[in-house]
Recover the amino acids of this structure.
């Protein structure tokens, strides 16, 4: 556990820096263009390369030193940030350098993610998976919990360049912690003569498709990622329609306290059973609170609903993570997580591709003062800028609850937990 904690501290620091950059980029693009569509495009180009290249990163993580893959991914992802900084510093600002820079960083992050997930299995026992998953989520969620308030305060007195410098500095800390652990872990050198990329890709795919429970869970999580992406992407333009970036940063950080609460609760409770039931209930709760977030322009009510929404997410992620981890052999987990990443997070990609356009050109006009829904739904949730986004969140939350009821309690997902218990009894 000590080695895992060392790596975890490095990833926590890196996540805070990355979250600050993501917040600054969304604010920068929206203030430069006033377009929710371009904000979602920025999120898309920052996300798509990582998703598409995750299977490649997974194959390499199973084939080579996983800690070395993390070091390479962290180090070279700094190139994209440096490109953005240079462009702004030399007066070549605009959205295009942002898009190019975040895409470059995303390419190298694809090497890091599968290796990081597989490293958890390398370093820990099965009894420690749930607790480790809670800690991993604390680190990942720090970009929502800590980063926005820091970035918001910095942006109130400086600009995006300061945040880029801070983020680039965090990479050195992360690389140092990974390198320190790597020295004490013996790695198996691959037999390069037997390397067959296509064969290993198929083996990673088979580890998922051959298990009905894993495949069902992957499909469910793909839908959930689609809905969750709406609130992650559209919260910035919705709140900026009636507040400033400092308020937005504080609101996002306070709201993300829910993720900390959920992650800490998981770490303390160290859940060891009823994963499928907890997964279904948490999905339903998340959908309800997402819908409520879109019903109001009160910053206080939005914060309350977001806190409750984010509290449910760690339980969803932990239960899905453990159910998959106990169902797939360790020697193919790098490839499996790479494939799972692309299959589940394609939901994020689709959402990023459509949510901005829907907000700007479909739902937004419907709830303007003279919109076709102003006299009906507008009387309930209000009209004007940002109210179309509110309606989108309501619809997304309702559909999320529906999918949770239909798929969250499916037999194939429940049997994943039962089969693992049977194996433990037989052994």
């Amino acid at each position: 556990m000590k080695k895992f904690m060392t790596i975890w501290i490095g990833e926590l620091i890196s996540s805070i820096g990355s979250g600050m950059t993501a917040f600054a980029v969304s604010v920068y693009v929206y203030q430069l263009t006033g377009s929710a569509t371009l904000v979602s495009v920025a999120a898309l180009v920052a996300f798509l390369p990582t998703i598409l290249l995750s299977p490649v990163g997974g194959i390499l993580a199973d084939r080579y030193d996983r800690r070395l893959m993390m070091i390479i991914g962290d180090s070279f992802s700094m190139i994209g940030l440096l490109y953005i900084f240079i462009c702004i510093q030399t007066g070549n600002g605009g959205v295009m350098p942002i898009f190019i820079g975040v895409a470059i960083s995303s390419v190298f992050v694809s090497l890091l993610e599968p290796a990081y997930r597989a490293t958890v299995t390398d370093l820990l026992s099965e009894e420690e998976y749930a607790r480790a998953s809670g800690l991993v989520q604390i680190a990942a969620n720090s970009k929502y919990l800590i980063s926005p308030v820091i970035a918001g305060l910095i942006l109130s007195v400086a600009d995006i360049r300061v945040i880029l410098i801070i983020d680039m500095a965090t990479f050195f800390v992360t690389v140092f912690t990974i390198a320190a652990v790597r020295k004490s872990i013996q790695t198996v050198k691959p037999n390069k003569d037997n390397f067959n990329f296509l064969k290993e890709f198929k083996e990673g795919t088979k580890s998922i498709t051959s298990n009905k429970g894993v495949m069902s869970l992957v499909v469910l999580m793909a839908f959930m990622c689609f809905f969750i992406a709406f609130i992650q992407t559209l919260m910035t333009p919705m709140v900026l329609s009636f507040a400033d970036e400092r308020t937005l940063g504080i609101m996002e950080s306070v709201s993300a306290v829910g993720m900390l609460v959920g992650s800490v609760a998981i770490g303390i409770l160290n859940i060891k059973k009823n994963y499928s039931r907890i997964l279904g209930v948490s999905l339903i709760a998340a959908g309800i609170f997402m819908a409520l977030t879109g019903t109001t322009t009160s910053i206080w009510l939005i914060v309350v609903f977001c806190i409750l929404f984010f509290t449910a997410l760690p339980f969803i992620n932990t239960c899905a993570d453990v159910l998959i981890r106990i169902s797939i052999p360790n020697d193919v987990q790098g490839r499996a997580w790479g494939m799972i990443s692309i299959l589940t997070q394609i939901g994020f990609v689709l959402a990023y591709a459509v949510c901005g356009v829907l907000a700007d050109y479909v739902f937004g006009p419907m709830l303007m003062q003279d919109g076709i829904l102003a006299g009906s739904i507008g009387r309930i949730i209000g009209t004007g800028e940002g109210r179309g986004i509110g309606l989108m969140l309501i619809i997304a939350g309702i559909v999320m609850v529906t999918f949770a009821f239909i798929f969250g309690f499916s037999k194939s997902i429940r049997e994943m937990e039962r089969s693992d218990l049977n194996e433990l009894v037989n052994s």
Observations:
- The longest helix spans residues 333-366.
- The domain at 2-184+206-426 is CATH 1.20.1250.20 (Growth Hormone; Chain: A;).
- Residues 190 and 248 are 48 Å apart (CA to CA).
